[in-house]
Model the fold of this input.
Amino acid sequence: MSTIFTKIINGEIPSYKVAEDEHFFAFLDINPNTRGHTLCVPKQEVNKLFDLDKDTYEGLMRFSYKVAKAIERSVPCDRIGMAVIGLEVPHVHVHLIPINEMKDMTFQHKTPVPAEEMKALAEQIQQNL
Amino acid sequence: MSTIFTKIINGEIPSYKVAEDEHFFAFLDINPNTRGHTLCVPKQEVNKLFDLDKDTYEGLMRFSYKVAKAIERSVPCDRIGMAVIGLEVPHVHVHLIPINEMKDMTFQHKTPVPAEEMKALAEQIQQNL
Done:
């Protein structure tokens, strides 16, 4: 059975898409730590980051760099934090999170963002790629 | 004034060193979330991850992959988590953390590790590079 992220990549589940290329896909986290919290995912379904083959890992990190720069140009923040944890969805995902303080990185404080604003955010990040 | 990490890289402050090459340095976090928690640092002093030039960023990620694989071979865990936050020390550092549950990634639960065990851990990770 495919993961929820594969369903998002295939368009079976809607998402606020931010970027896509042949091997990777980025979209807004639906339960964001902060406004602009984005997930970068390889199209290949692999559970753990360091089980990715070296090329896919490096490609994912390059892709994440590009997306992070676009988020930085779109959302006022001190910096973009990065995290890869993956204990919930068994499909590698890089969290890119606009942060100002440590609590923005603990995944214990969430920021509800209305649908209209999610849409506008995704469009703005896309334009800043 | 140089950052605490530059002082560690230069040997002015002792550390449990794990790996080093021309551009990067890895050592055990002295206040670890879990046993084996390691920091990977570019020798170049840059505050924010996405302010690194592309080559240094990609080099740091390649270096971190190698170190993560060695930690994985040295410390029993579900997987190696990765985080880049950087709000405390203005010198890019990639956290590589052996994790089993979400609390291992929140930086709110620390695991004191005796000096002897830190030394043994660093040696074991080095050997598994």
Remarks:
- Chain B touches chain A at residues 48-50, 54, 57-58, 61-62, 65, 68-69, 72, 78-87, 99, 101-102, 105-108 (CB under 8 Å).
